Structure to design on (397 residues):
């Protein structure tokens, strides 16, 4: 049996243990409370982080990437115009026709239209290629690149040389694996020597079609090909958006320049007016109050009209940005259809989005240009009224 001293030691040890457990419990509660507060803080940040992420994606994908896409497309278009001009339009086609052919082939293959048109630009440098075989030659370039696993530039140069000089071209094509037999080579040579170069070109294209025809289109039936096709359609929409933004900025810049020129003219007119009425002002001080009132009135009118004009401009800008966001949302839906195998549905949705997006861009350009024109019209009217007031004041003096 434990002595009284042993019992007191046991009780003391228990009390100490209970005290330590109580402290530990308080510490655990403190940690739990801090964890709860931290969780609440992060929970409050999540919506903000989501909005910032959405804003970044909109600016990056909706605006910056669209401007980049249009920049690349515009460079290709300008190169087409330059080649046609330098070759004196030997092909017999317009830049618009060349671009339309690239767009048609983009819808039938996995190649982007700017890449196709870049290949067309190389073919255009071979002036013996006429418009009657140019579409087939362009299609052959796509098939060769797909079948031989080479880039469009290489295929364009190989085929362009062959069609430019069929006799030497056959030999060059045989080096890269095209099978022209001796009879075909001889027939091609005789056709060129007897003035039937076009028939020789057609014979070359026929052999290439036999070996590689349909290669580019076949890739569209694969999963990877469908993904590339959808990416190209998104690129088309981005190009349209980028074009609209650039044209709007150009219109705005032109409006600002016009306003600056008008302001400079106003300054010059004002200098002449000052030279006329300054001496009279010295002896006609009584009119100064009226002139000051007129100036303040013009300033007030200018500020009021300018604010209203800019408010309308930025309201239209906000509305246009919302439209762009809506088009992008619909496009993501089309992509989802394409990824799920609904190829036809995806194409119809993309065409609808592209059509609506193009119209929205045109409407946005017209609306914002109209707003800017109205701002400068108001400014010009105010400046003209100011000049009239100055002349009237001069006459009274």
């Amino acid at each position: 049996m434990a002595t009284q001293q042993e019992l007191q030691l046991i009780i003391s040890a228990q009390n100490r243990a209970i005290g330590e457990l109580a402290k530990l419990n308080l510490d655990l509660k403190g940690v739990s409370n801090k964890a709860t507060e931290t969780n609440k803080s992060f929970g409050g940040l999540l919506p903000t982080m989501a909005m910032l992420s959405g804003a970044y994606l909109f600016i990056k994908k909706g605006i910056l990437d669209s401007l980049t896409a249009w920049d690349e497309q515009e460079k290709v278009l300008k190169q087409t115009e330059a080649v046609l001009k330098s070759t004196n339009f030997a092909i017999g086609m317009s830049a618009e026709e060349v671009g339309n052919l690239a767009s048609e082939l983009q819808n039938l293959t996995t190649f982007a239209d700017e890449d196709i048109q870049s290949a067309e630009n190389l073919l255009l440098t071979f002036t013996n290629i006429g418009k009657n075989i140019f579409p087939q030659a362009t299609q052959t370039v796509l098939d060769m690149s797909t079948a031989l696993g080479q880039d469009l530039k290489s295929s364009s140069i190989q085929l362009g040389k062959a069609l430019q000089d069929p006799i030497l071209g056959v030999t060059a094509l045989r080096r890269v694996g095209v099978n022209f037999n001796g009879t075909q080579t001889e027939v091609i040579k005789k056709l060129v020597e007897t003035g039937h170069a076009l028939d020789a070109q057609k014979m070359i294209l026929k052999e290439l079609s036999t070996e590689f025809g349909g290669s580019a289109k076949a890739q569209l039936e694969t999963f990877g090909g469908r993904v590339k096709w959808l990416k190209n359609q998104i690129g088309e929409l981005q190009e349209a958006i980028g074009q609209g933004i650039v044209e709007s900025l150009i219109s705005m810049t032109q409006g600002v320049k016009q306003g600056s020129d008008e302001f400079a003219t106003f300054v010059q007119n004002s200098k002449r007016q000052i030279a006329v009425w300054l001496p009279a002002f010295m002896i006609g001080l009584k009119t100064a109050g009226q002139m000051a009132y007129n100036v303040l009135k013009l300033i007030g009118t200018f500020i009021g009209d300018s604010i209203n004009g800019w408010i309308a401009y930025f309201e239209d800008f906000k509305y246009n940005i919302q439209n762009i966001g809506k088009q992008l949302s619909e496009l993501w839906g089309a992509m989802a259809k394409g990824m799920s195998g609904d190829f036809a549905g995806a194409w119809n949705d993309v065409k609808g989005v592209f059509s609506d997006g193009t119209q929205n861009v045109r409407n946005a350009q017209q609306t914002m240009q109209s707003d800017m024109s109205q701002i400068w019209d108001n400014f010009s009217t105010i400046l003209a009224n100011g000049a009239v007031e100055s002349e009237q004041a001069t006459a009274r003096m």
Observations:
- Residues 4-86 form the longest helix (83 residues).
- The mean pLDDT is 76.
- The two ends are 128 Å apart (CA to CA).
- Residues 183 and 189 are 10 Å apart (CA to CA).
